[in-house]
Amino acid sequence: MCELSPAVRGRSGRRHARKGRGGVSESTEMRARASQVLPHELPASLRDAGLTNWIREPLDDAVDRRRRIIMPPAAAVMGTPASACQGALLAESRHPDTVFMMGDNPALPTMPPRPTLRDFFDLRFSKIARTHLLQSARVARENGLDEKVITACLLHDIAIAGLLSANHGYWGAQMVAPYVDEEVAWAIEKHEALRYFPDESVGYTYPEAYINYFGPDYNPPDYIRREAEAARGHRWYMASRLVTINDIYSFDPNVVVDYDEFEDVVGRNFRQPGEGLGFDGSPVAHMWRTMIWPNNFL
Q1: Order of strands across the sheet that contains 67-69
Q2: Which whole-number Å values give the CA distances from 133 to 93, 150, 198, in the listed order?
Q3: Same domain, 49 and 194
Q4: Buried-exposed string 247-259: b where 16+ CB fall within 10 A, e elsewhere
């Protein structure tokens, strides 16, 4: 029999040694076992595809002792062997005390009932993404730029931080559009295309990091070229170009920036809904809810 992975073994996979005189009684041990989810061996298709980490054992302090399955989003596994494992994960839900993840994931910090922008920075965004956004905004402020640009820098990669990397400028612009000035949302959207094209008049060169990321022979697709060309003729071009300029200098892992530095800027430039992000009925509320409950099955 194949060994269970640590993620699947969890508490329920630990063996209990029989106690001698003065040790734990057999009845006590049986009651303890009864409160745990019994382990079972995952099918080889899930183990071979590396999906054992999508089966979450209950945490030690969980009230609900059920095992939870996280179904990987299609966009995350498309083009990988994991994309063929949906059926195997569906079959796992037929085991006793096993359900699909819905609602709060016990492994994530619980969001408040009316989440603010800061809550997403603190409780959902990864450290790397959060630090990059805050660094970018600080560089923009230190360069004396206006608050619209500072706000755009603070939010420009928000989709990468909590939703999707592909087309992140477009996703990010849509996410914040109901809450910021139109120019801010436009700058976030267009930085997606402008970052690939130098502008020597303002000192922006093609990022060396992109050579490492994509290779020296990478050519952006035609739609990106068309977007960048159209953006260069727009009255807000410089706002988006400044996002790209302050973007590339904001990856120092040793720099510490606190969100408190931008509470005033956010207060003046981000219209926080009273109901909380995700619950205000806006056309993008579902995007924020996806970050609140990122592992929901449906």
Answers
A1: 55-56, 67-69, 98-100
A2: 39, 10, 22
A3: no
A4: bbebeeeeeebeb
Q: What CATH number is associated with residue 146? A: 1.10.3210
297 occurs within a structural domain: no
How long is the chain?
A: 298
Give whole-number Cα distances, 149 to 146, 185, 271, in Å. 6, 10, 16
Collapse the DSSP code of 55 into the 3-class scheme (helix H, G, I; strand E, B; otherwise coil) and give the result. Answer: strand
Residue at 76: amino acid letter: A
Q: Is 1 part of any domain?
A: no
Amino acid in position 35: S
CB 277 within 8 A of CB 287: no
| Chain centre distance of CA 278 | 15
Task: Give the 3-state secondary structure of 210-228.
Answer: HHHHHCCCCCCCHHHHHHH
Please indicate, yes or no, whether residues 258 and 159 belong to a single structural domain of this protein: yes
The pTM (predicted TM-score) of the whole model is: 0.80
| pLDDT digit string (tens) for the chain, length 298 residues | 232 333 333 333 333 333 333 343 444 343 333 344 445 566 665 565 555 656 666 655 454 677 888 888 888 888 887 787 788 888 888 888 888 889 998 889 999 999 999 999 999 999 999 999 999 999 999 999 999 999 999 999 999 999 999 999 999 999 999 999 999 999 999 999 999 999 999 999 999 989 999 999 999 999 999 999 999 999 999 999 999 999 877 677 788 899 999 999 999 999 999 999 999 999 999 999 999 999 999 9
Sign of the CA dihedral running 153, 266, 294, 131: positive
